[in-house]
Design goal:
Number of helices: 15
Strand content: 5-15%
Radius of gyration: 29 Å
Helix content: 55-70%
Number of strands: 7
Order of helices and strands: HHHEEHHEEHHHHHHEEHHHEH
Largest sheet: 3 strands, antiparallel
Length: 453
């Protein structure tokens, strides 16, 4: 009996000891996994290293509203005050500039774009998109003071100038070699002038070629203020209807002339813009389109700031008043991704459709309108344009590939995407013309409504 009690006692002691040891082991197991070196901590450090310093400011995919800075009276403060949105825009513009820089190949040309879903490059080597990308990279260089951007943009411009030639009968005129049936000479000359004069420090010989193209644009001016868009002789009548493509080409040419006034001022340039505004402002009202709006507004804004003439400001306001009415400015639970984007326009009629990267070009026009309203001292218009612009820029930023929305891609492939802009929430393809308008709008916003220009 005594031996039985001893064995029972020993059994109980061993059992209690085993239970105690097991409970302590389980209770301590989580602590080393959470804090011990070589486990969770290194994983976090690796993630931070891979995402880079920009990750903390990454907006991701969600449509996060960024409220403009306001004063104690709940009014938007002027453009010289830093706001969370401005910081995000600056970061996005820098990423876009980096993407354009990486898309510029060793031969000086930009890769047209890519399809991330299939890991394939997009076919196409369009002159107008090449020069548009050079223009945007040049503007990004002015914003960031990045010498590598300026050097790469200059290289691209010089390469594209190689596709131009001087007029046989007048060496002071220069235009693109291809006939307008393949590449509109008026529009291409205007875009090249834009890219050259947006460079932070264009070389003297490059500026000289820019002036030759300005002279070519001047030679296309007709008596009614319109610009001839064909290579043939001037039409017998001056009331020939301008197609949408004609207006776009003319608008690009006018914007180039206006911007060239900064480096090579000439009395005939404001006069040409004055006559063109008299013609194209009413033409645009009759044939409204989104494709020409940003270039016309850019031209008339530069002309207003140069001359302070009311007719230029009125043209800028008329276009942007209409653009503001196209925005999806209310959050629709059925289409939350549409918020801040814009409706379409077909043959002058408004069409409700999924908004896309076209919003970036509209943001360019709105930024220019804010500059004019600010200069004139029209706070009501400025607040309307600025509010519309804030939502538009947020929409455009949601179309940019960033660290947070590319995690499903392999690490080696992500670098090809980050900073680029895709067409819409349903189309993930990247193209340099998408980046052109997005980077141009954001850089202009950061320069002109931030530090001034």
């Amino acid at each position: 009996m005594h031996n039985r009690l001893v064995w029972i006692t020993v059994f109980l002691v061993v059992a209690v000891g085993a239970l105690t040891t097991w409970s302590l082991t389980q209770g301590q197991d989580a602590s080393p996994r959470k804090n011990a070196p070589g486990k969770t901590k290194p994983a976090v450090a690796k993630l931070q290293e891979s995402t880079g310093p920009d990750e903390s400011a990454d907006a991701g995919n969600a449509p996060i509203p960024l409220i403009p800075a306001k004063d104690k009276n709940d009014k938007i403060v002027d453009g010289n005050t830093t706001s969370p949105l401005r910081e995000q825009v600056l970061l996005s513009a820098q990423r876009g500039g980096d993407w354009l820089f990486r898309m510029n190949a060793v031969d000086g040309r930009f890769l047209h774009g890519c399809n991330p879903a299939l890991n394939t490059d997009l076919d196409g080597d369009y002159f107008m998109r090449q020069v548009g990308a050079a223009f945007a990279l040049a503007r990004a260089a002015r914003l960031t003071s990045e010498e590598r951007y300026a050097a790469r943009a200059t290289q691209a411009v010089v390469l594209l100038l190689g596709e131009t030639k001087a007029y046989d009968r007048d060496s002071t005129l220069r235009y693109t070699s291809l006939p307008s049936a393949l590449l509109n000479r008026l529009g291409s000359a205007g875009m090249l002038v834009l890219a050259i004069n947006e460079l932070p420090a264009p070389q003297k010989d490059v500026l000289e070629q820019s002036e030759q193209m300005c002279n070519f644009i001047r030679s296309q001016l007709r008596s009614n203020g319109s610009l001839l868009c064909s290579d043939g002789p001037e039409e017998a009548t001056s009331d020939v209807k301008q197609t949408e493509a004609d207006v776009v080409s003319a608008a690009q040419a006018l914007y180039g002339i206006a911007l060239s006034q900064h480096h090579r001022p000439a009395p005939w340039k404001p006069e040409l813009l004055r006559r063109a505004c008299t013609f194209y402002a009413p033409v645009w009202k009759k044939q409204r389109s989104l494709s020409s709006a940003s270039y016309l507004v850019g031209a008339f804004t530069e002309a207003y700031l140069e001359t302070k003439e009311k007719s230029f400001a009125d043209a800028v306001f008329a276009i942007n008043d209409w653009l503001c009415g196209l925005q999806y400015d209310r959050l629709d639970p059925r289409h939350p991704d549409w918020w801040g984007g814009f409706m379409g326009c077909q043959e002058g009629k408004i069409v409700q459709q999924t908004p896309d990267i076209t919003t970036a070009a509209i943001a360019e026009a709105l930024t220019e309108a804010c500059r004019v309203a600010q200069h004139i001292g029209d706070p009501k218009r400025f607040e309307r344009y600025n509010g519309t612009l804030d939502l538009a820029l947020q929409f455009v930023m949601r179309l940019q590939y960033s660290q947070s929305n590319t995690r499903h891609f392999a690490d080696w492939y992500r670098a090809k995407l980050i900073g680029g802009f895709h067409a819409s929430q349903q189309d993930g393809n990247l193209r340099i013309d998408y980046a052109q308008h997005a980077v141009s709008a954001m850089a202009l916003y950061a320069m002109c409504l931030g530090k001034g220009r």
